[in-house]
Structure prediction request, 265 residues.
Amino acid sequence: LVNVHPDEPQAHALYGDLLFGDGQIAKAAQQYQRTLELNDNNYKVWQQLLACFEQLGDFTKLDKESDKALELFPNRLIFYYYNATAAFQQGNHKKAAATAEAGVDLGVNDKQVNVSLYNIIGSAYYKQAKYNESYAAFEEALTLDPNNLLVLNNYAYYLSEQGDHLEKALAMSKRTIEISPNNPAYLDTYGWILYKSERYNDALGYIRKALELSPGDGDIMEHLGDVHYRLGNKEEAAKYWQKSKDSGNDSVQLDRKINEGKLSD
Prediction:
């Protein structure tokens, strides 16, 4: 169809939909881009194109194209989500928070997207060390969807990192593993909160299980090393810290642990 009608936008959009449904995401994006070159006034095609870039993890293109989509369709809530996501993934936390807040301020009745926007706001403010604003955003998200696993996990983890409200963090994290007991990220968070609560023996089992489910995760390896260190297993701690580094974890804190052979307070 596109060979016979190369200048027909709907032909390219249809081909893009079929490619998208078949999991050929990069090729689908090419067809959606061609559609928009011929006619950029179809918000559904813009939405599909942005979904492609999100799935591909191409946040540079997602940022650029979602900027264009927002200019054309400033009342479409989903475009605020994609734009804020792109900004957050690229480390532009101020833009991420501002865009996500502009989205929720539209007042569009779409619970799922609004929850995602509040999650971005909470995460972006946390990265800027604006902890009260961060926690308030997560509370708004949970008001809309009390059992949203991503929000519960993020909120609980951020609370534990600051040592704030550990019992509340533990309760939220426990809910995630009750609902999704084999998710390594949720198990790691729960174990990490136990670690922060100085319940090292309890933490060990959960973080070890998380690593069994996600054996290449450098963050989980580092956490497991920390737990072993607190339990007095210094050789095991050193082993997992080195494994974490070998997996690609390049944090300054990890290098310090490896070089000094210990955890600093």
About this structure: The radius of gyration is 22 Å.
